[in-house]
Design a protein that fits this description.
Blueprint: E1 11-12, H1 15-23, H2 32-45, E2 52-53, H3 65-68, H4 88-102, E3 109-115, E4 119-125, E5 128-132, H5 153-163, H6 165-174, H7 177-182, H8 188-193, H9 197-221, E6 226-230, H10 231-236, H11 238-246, H12 257-261, E7 275-278, H13 283-297
Parallel strand pairs: 3-6, 6-7
Antiparallel strand pairs: 1-2, 3-4, 4-5
Helix pairs in contact: 4-13, 5-6
Length: about 300
């Protein structure tokens, strides 16, 4: 998942690369150790078998420093604290697929919505990420299934003071987001079937903060040519798509309701100034394509 500052492109795994993946464990403690354990076990069982790695953070390596640096001093206490961004494999897959699905060249200013249990947005300008909503960790940004999304740092410190570090980690990562807002439901499908006010509020919170962040990313690109949805919610929750697209009508977005209800890949109305697409998430294909490209380059 996490390549840190140094691992910003797909690589063939070597002992040094494996060490660097291990060094990134503090940045992704829930993912990197398990990935590395499988890599090391396979290396022991089949030492002559080449292994390759792709990193979920690497797509965002093109973000300018003004987008990745927090306004904190450079000192040993803040080492490694910066925005990295995630869902890079999904966004990379989207960039690769969209021209084939649309039959047109990649739009210059593309706003990508990866909406699932984990959710983030990415501003893609001329095929490169220039801004994204997740930051130092996958906790930041949008309201998610069980993660809080953006929250004031002093509020986090207050939670730590009142509840301790481990309990605060559990609250923010596993008990918040849609789950916390609705009182027990993290799956968008279940929320949309539930007529309760709490579930309706959780859905609106998800859409509202998606729109708030979307406006920020449109500003980062200085305009908008296309929108693309991907991920489990982005591909399947037509009501969520409709709510978000209504909220972007100020940017020239006009949705075709029939196309949305029919789950068509192209959603824009003829009058829309912005094209709108639904792209299947194919992260595994991206990983396989990365590995194949490295093999063929040898």
């Amino acid at each position: 998942v996490h390549g840190g500052r140094k691992l910003t492109a797909p690589v063939r795994l070597t002992p040094d690369i494996r060490v660097e993946i291990g060094n990134c464990t503090p940045l992704a403690p829930l993912h990197n150790p398990h990935n590395l354990a499988a890599i090391n076990t396979l290396a022991e069982l089949a030492p002559d078998l080449p292994q390759y790695a792709s990193f979920d953070t690497s797509f965002h390596a093109s973000n300018p420093e003004v987008a990745t640096r927090y306004a904190i001093p450079r000192m040993i206490e803040t080492k490694g604290i910066r925005r990295y961004g995630f869902h890079g494999l999904s966004f990379s897959s989207l960039v690769r697929q969209l021209p084939h699905i649309s039959g047109e060249k990649l739009p210059s200013r593309l706003l990508a919505f990866h909406l699932g249990n984990g959710a983030s947005l990415c501003a893609i300008k001329n095929g490169q990420s220039v801004a994204t909503t997740m930051g130092y960790s996958p906790l930041d940004g949008l309201t998610m299934g069980t993660r809080s999304g953006g929250i004031d740092a002093n509020a986090v410190l207050r939670l730590v003071e009142d509840n301790g570090l481990e309990r605060t980690k559990a609250i923010l990562n596993h008990e918040s987001g849609l789950l916390g807002l609705s009182g027990g439901k993290s799956d968008m499908r279940n929320l949309m079937l539930d007529p309760s006010a709490d579930s309706a509020f959780a859905i609106e919170h998800f859409c509202y903060w998606s729109l708030r962040h979307a406006g920020s990313l449109v500003a980062a690109m200085e305009g908008l040519d296309a929108i693309a949805f991907t991920g489990g919610i982005g591909e399947n929750a037509l009501g969520v798509r409709a709510r978000i697209l209504r909220g972007l009508e100020w940017a020239g977005v006009q949705m075709n309701p029939d196309a949305n209800h029919s789950h068509k890949p192209r959603l824009q109305a003829e009058s829309s100034k912005v094209s709108i697409w639904v792209i299947p998430a194919r992260e595994e294909e991206t990983i396989a394509a990365d590995a194949l490209a490295l093999i063929q380059a040898q």
